Amino acid sequence: EAGVTQFPSHSVIEKGQTVTLRCDPISGHDNLYWYRRVMGKEIKFLLHFVKESKQDESGMPNNRFLAERTGGTYSTLKVQPAELEDSGVYFCASSQDWGSPGTDKNIQYFGAGTRLSVL
Amino acid sequence: KQEVTQIPAALSVPEGENLVLNCSFTDSAIYNLQWFRQDPGKGLTSLLLIQSSQREQTSGRLNASLDKSSGRSTLYIAASQPGDSATYLCAVRRGDSGGGADGLTFGKGTHLIIQP
């Protein structure tokens, strides 16, 4: 079974350009999460999808970031326009469930991440 | 606001030693706690998940404990091997009665080196 896959693995863009990151969750996982880690900081939550709906986007830093999950399958995270401080590693994770207490269905499985460098 | 702290930030020990990594969190209203490892340039690999009602979980040479009331978790690694070298991350998910976001709150990690 394929794990969480992210594309591209590395992206280098100039300030002001647009970049789109893609995440394919584990098949059958309704829950999809985006996180990012900027240099020297801990990994921070950005948003949570349940199927195609945004359950929680409280971690999104500003309106230059737009996440979509059309059809409830793969998700994209667009940064437009990119700024220097957006550089970091963007992780995607998925889980089978979110609200089932006492089960392993809540385990979040992470992709390898996309390293974004804004010059 | 939930904050997660991991101590030590870095640790280097000879192969074969048993070791303990520490994780503390400020809000005890958690749903569960996950330990991950991250190898350089790779994603996060889930090691253990402890539900809020559990005290410990074991997987092979790994044992994780949880003391929710004191806001602490430990990851015990027995008979360490060079292949255990990685960064270990602790993350908590808020409970239904806790505030904050849906996602996991991470610590900065412990960078572990096992010397052959």
- The helix/strand order of chain B is EEEEEEEEEEE
Provide the low-confidence segments of chain A as ranges: none
Supply Rg of chain B: 14 Å
- Give the SSE string of chain A: EEEEEEEEEEE
What is the number of beta strands of chain B?
11
* Percent helix of chain A: under 10%
Biggest sheet statistics of chain B = 6 strands, mixed
Q: What does this protein look like?
A:
The complex is a heterodimer of chains A (119) and B (116). Chain A has strands at residues 5-7, 10-13, 19-24, 31-37, 44-50, 53-56, 65-68, 75-79, 88-95, 109-110, 114-118. Chain A is built from no helices and eleven strands. The mean pLDDT of chain A is 92. Chain A is elongated. The mean pLDDT of chain B is 92. In chain B, 34% of the residues are buried. In chain B, the strands form two sheets. In chain B, strands 2, 4, 5, 9, 10 and 11 form a six-stranded mixed sheet that branches. In chain B, strands 1-3-8-7-6 form a five-stranded antiparallel sheet, with no helix packed on it. By secondary structure, chain B is mainly beta. Chain B contains no helices and eleven strands.
